[in-house]
Amino acid sequence: MNLIFLGPPGAGKGTQAKRLIARFGLPQLSTGDILRKAVADGTALGKKAKALMDAGKLVPDEIVNGIVDEALASPLAQKGFLLDGFPRTVPQAEALDQMLGRRGRKIDHVISIEVPTEVLVDRLAGRQTCPQCQTSYGKDSPPANPGHCDRDGEKLIVRPDDQPERVRQRMHEYETKTALLTGYYKARGVVREIDGVGSVDEVEKRIVGAFA
């Protein structure tokens, strides 16, 4: 099963992705992790990406696409995957279709988690994140030990991106760029729109039910 998660900041994509990975045994292909690994491994694309990042420049689609293509060729991704952070734009989605097409594969489901803007702002205003493992905690999923990560005990922080005005800016960016992907994948009949309001367990149940 090949999956993509779509949804605005704070919709719960990261939390639900972890649950699906555990439930179905899928590898999570995170663009950020893939990029960092390519840089650390010193691959040809990783070296190009590092030079751009060191210069404070954005890594262009050509390099990001190439790094994702390499990840899709990994033995770990042969039985399925969950893509995290890619694609973000329609051109990236088109490139992904080409990568998969060369391998006789396709995207099976695009999970679009739907949450009203005001709910997202309220959620993110109370969100804390572990600086070590990046696990997020909020009103619906507080840590067992207040202020500390359940996984590694690190002190939780509030990210600058989770401040209300920044949240609204990120929402605008999502609506003008990434949200266009919903239309792209709807035309292919693979979008599963999920109500993202409710407990983590309730949302997970809706997602799993959408695969039936």
Polypeptide structure, described:
- This protein is α/β, with parallel strands linked by helices and 212 residues long.
- The chain has a domain at 2-26 and 80-115 and 172-210: Rossmann fold, CATH 3.40.50.300.
- Helices cover 48% and strands 13% of the residues.
- The strands form two sheets. A five-stranded parallel β-sheet has the order 2-3-1-4-7, with helices on both faces. The chain has a two-stranded antiparallel ribbon with strand order 5-6.
- A hairpin with a 6-residue loop joins strand 5 (128-129) and strand 6.
- Helix 2 (31-41) packs across helix 3 (44-54) and helix 3 (44-54) runs antiparallel to helix 4 (61-72).
Estimated helix fraction:
40-55%
Q: Which consecutive residue ranges, at least 5 long each, have pLDDT under 50?
A: none
Spatial separation of the terminal alpha carbons: 13 Å
Report the structural category: alpha/beta
Largest sheet: 5 strands, parallel
SSE sequence, one letter per element: EHEHHHEHEHEEHHEH
CATH-defined architecture of the domain at 2-26 and 80-115 and 172-210: 3-Layer(aba) Sandwich
- Provide the CATH top-level class of the domain at 2-26 and 80-115 and 172-210: Alpha Beta
- Output the CATH topology of the domain at 2-26 and 80-115 and 172-210: Rossmann fold
Count of helices? 9
Q: How large a portion of the residues is in β-strands, by DSSP E?
A: 5-15%
